[in-house]
Fold this sequence. Notes:
Blueprint: H1 2-5, E1 7-8, H2 20-23, H3 33-50, H4 55-67, H5 70-74, E2 82-86, H6 92-99, E3 104-109, E4 122-125, E5 135-141, H7 152-162, E6 163-174, H8 179-195, H9 209-219, E7 223-228, E8 237-243
Amino acid sequence: MRGHEGSRARGGSSPRAPRPRSLAAPSHPRPTLESQRVFFQSLVVLHREYRSFPLGARLHILIRFLTCPFLRVAKRIPPGARVLEIGAGHGAFSRLAIDQGACRAIAVEPDTRKLHQTSSIDLVAGYDEAIRGTFDVVAMLDVLYTIDCKDWDALLHRIADRVAPGGMFLLKEMDPTLRWKQRWNRLQESISVRLLGITMAEGLFFETPERIVDRLRRAGFDDVDRVPIDAGYPHPHLLYVARKR
Ligand SMILES: C[S@@+](CC[C@H](N)C(=O)[O-])C[C@H]1O[C@@H](n2cnc3c(N)ncnc32)[C@H](O)[C@@H]1O
C-alpha cells in the first residue's frame, strides 16, 4: 500500500522535471470500512479528550480534524513509538498518535492560548529547543509555513538531531504547485493568520516540494518520500516522510 502512495525523491530539482505527482498512483485509496471506523473512533477519542475545553477550542480542533488528514499521517507511526510533535496546537495529532499505538507523545507548542491540561499527552509550552533527547518519530504538521524561510534550515537540522537512528520525521505542509488548492489555502490562511489571529505566524511561507526535499537531505535525512495526502480535501496537503538510518 505504501508504495502506491508515495514517490521517492531523488536528488536535484530541475524546473523541467515532470511532477512526481503525475507519475504516482492515486494519492490515497478509497475509504474502506476500516478507515471509516477509525475516522469515527478518532472523533470519539478527540471528543472525550477535549470535552472540558472552551467551546472555541473544541470547534477549532473539530475543524482541524475535518480539514487536515491527521489520520493519513498518524497511521505511519509504528506501534510503541515515542513521538515528539513540534508546534502541536491543541495537541490533537499527538492524541491521535497515542490512539494509533504510540507509547508516549510529547507535544510542544509556543502559543499558550492553546495549552490546556490533557490526560494522555505531555504538553510543553515552548519551541523545539525546549526538548532534548531523541524520538522514534518527530512530527510537525502545518508549522513550517508560519516560520520565515531563512530559519528553516536551522530548524530542520535541530529536528534531525531529535530523530533517533532508524527513526523518522513526518513533515506535513501544503504543496504550492497545486495551484487551485493553494489559492484556496492562501485565502483561508490569510483570514486565520492576518484577520482572525487564530494562528501565531511570522507570515505565510511556501516552497516547492523539490526545495523542501533538498532542505531535508541537507539537514541529515537519508531517505525522503513525498506522499500526496490531499485526495478528498480542498487543501493541497503533502506529507514528507524523512528517515534517518
Ligand atoms: C496551523 S497551526 C498547526 C497546529 C497543529 N500542528 C495542527 O496541525 O493542528 C501552526 C502552529 O505552529 C505554532 N508555531 C508557530 N511558530 C512556531 C515555531 N517557531 N515553533 C514551533 N511552533 C510554532 C503555532 O503556535 C501554531 O499552533
